[in-house]
Amino acid sequence: MDTDKKNPVLREGFLVKRGHIVHNWKARWFMLTPDKLLYYKYEGGKRDSCQRGKILLKDSVITCPFLEYENRPLVFKLQTKHGVDHFLEACSREERDEWAADIRATVNKLQATDNGKLMNQKDPAESRLHNINLSKVLDSMYDVHSGIKLSNHVEQGSNYSNCFSGSAVVDWLVFMQLTLTRVEAVTLASALLEEGFLRTVGLRSMEGLRTAGLSEQFMDDSTALYGFSDSLKKRGSVKAERSLSAVELSGKVIKRGYLLKQGHRRKNWKVRLFVLRSEPAFLHYYDPTKDDITPVGGFSLRGCLISSLDDNGVPSGVKGNIQGNLFKIITKSDTRYFIQAPTHQEKMEWIDAIRQQT
Q1: CA angle at 342 for the pair 338 and 347, rounded to the nearest 5°
Q2: Helices (DSSP H) in 30-69: which residue ranges?
Q3: Do residues 126 and 136 make contact, with C-beta atoms less than 8 angstroms apart?
Q4: b/e per residue, 9-46, with b = 16+ CB within 10 A?
Q5: Residue 251 · residue 300 · CB < 8 Å
Q6: Is 210 in contact with 162 (CB distance < 8 Å)?
Q7: Per-residue CA distances from 295 to 136, 178, 239 (Å)
Q8: Is the pLDDT of residue 103 over 70?
Q9: Is the peptide bond before 342 cis (omega within 30 degrees of 0)?
Q10: Cα–Cα distance, 65 to 87 (Å, whole number)
Q11: Separation between Cα atoms, residue 265 and residue 248, nearest integer Å
């Protein structure tokens, strides 16, 4: 848990997020702070140090539960003040409701703080742009015929492809009459950057993002480079590892949650939704990015051995720059599963729960 007094972490954990443009689902590590929701990618068994995006919570609206996804009953919707919808899925109803309650409390606290300020302190440009739909702005920018042009740029000796300058974005927003002035264009572009629709490219724009004020993160500068978010890239499908019988899925659910599992062949780490069942005792895991409710793998716990792995060094059989909290399960057929929990406490809870079923 982050101990930074200026920006403390109120809650953190795995959630599955739907992409904005390509509506695929991806597991991300989320961190709730007093004014925003940050999310990170896990690679090689370790959380990426650079955030993949952030959701500003001021004036946001939460819908929980959100029941429009038939195969995803654990989704809640978070709509920002710019009308951008974020769909997030938890691992259980309890987790979903707790996340929604904490986010709602944060939004309410921000609203109460806002109500104590004078109206003339608000940015006029931000007020005029309040009702603009950022998703539609992005669609226009990405349009093949009338959208912003992608090109190659050089910054401090480094080559960057498929990007555009900050001043080109401002020029385009004004030319398309989406904003009246360049100041409004910078505010709108900053909102696109905040919502994760645009990303910084190179050192100049990254430095601007780090040092500028909240409404001026985007730079109206020909040397500051930006690009479209990586979420525009499609993701390949994942095939099921094996088929499972209906008997295996008939047991009572004892525990469920997001854990990282090392693959048997490629040794890469992926977030999986694990479900522990009893009578019969099985441990199944699902791909949370897919709508398919069929497990991608699972095994009987009868005759299994489970052990906690030390966090000092990398244990034999484990690949990647892992963060620790590992445990190992050896099945009766001598298949080894290496699993990583987000925290030490969760690791011990899973070990205890599984041992009760072996």
Answers
A1: 60
A2: none
A3: no
A4: eebbbbbbbbbbbeebbbbbbbbbbebbbbbbbbebbe
A5: no
A6: no
A7: 36, 46, 11
A8: yes
A9: no
A10: 11
A11: 24
Segment among 13-22, 149-158, 212-221 with least mean pLDDT: 212-221
Greater pLDDT, 171 or 248:
171
Q: What pLDDT shows up at residue 126?
A: 52
pLDDT digits (tens, 9 = 90+) for 263-273: 888 788 899 99
Q: Which pair of structure tokens corresponds to residue 47?
A: 């959380």
Which of 80, 17, 1 has its CA nearest to residue 229?
17
Q: Which of 167, 160, 169 is closest to 203 using CA atoms?
A: 160
Per-residue pLDDT of 312-323, as tens digits, reads 666 777 877 777
Relative orientation angle of helices 166-175 and 182-194, to the nearest 10 degrees: 120
327 CB-near residues (< 8 Å, 6+ apart): 306, 307, 308, 309, 339, 341, 347, 350, 351
Q: Are 84 and 134 in contact (CB under 8 A)?
A: yes
Higher pLDDT, 302 or 131: 302
Given a cut of 60, is residue 153 above it in pLDDT? yes
Nearest Cα to 245, choosing from 301, 294, 302? 294
Predicted model pTM: 0.66
Residue 263's SS3 state is coil
> How many CB atoms are located within 10 Å of the residue 268 CB?
13
Contact 123, 289 (CB under 8 A): no
Q: Cβ(188)–Cβ(132) under 8 Å?
A: yes
Q: How confident is the model at residue 240 (pLDDT cuts 50, 70, 90)?
A: very low
Query: DSSP class of residue 206?
Result: H
Residue 173 has pLDDT above 80, yes or no: yes
Distance CA 358, CA 349 (A): 15
Assigned token pair, 346: 């969760």
CB-based contacts of 173-177 (< 8 A; 24+ apart in sequence): 176/140, 176/146
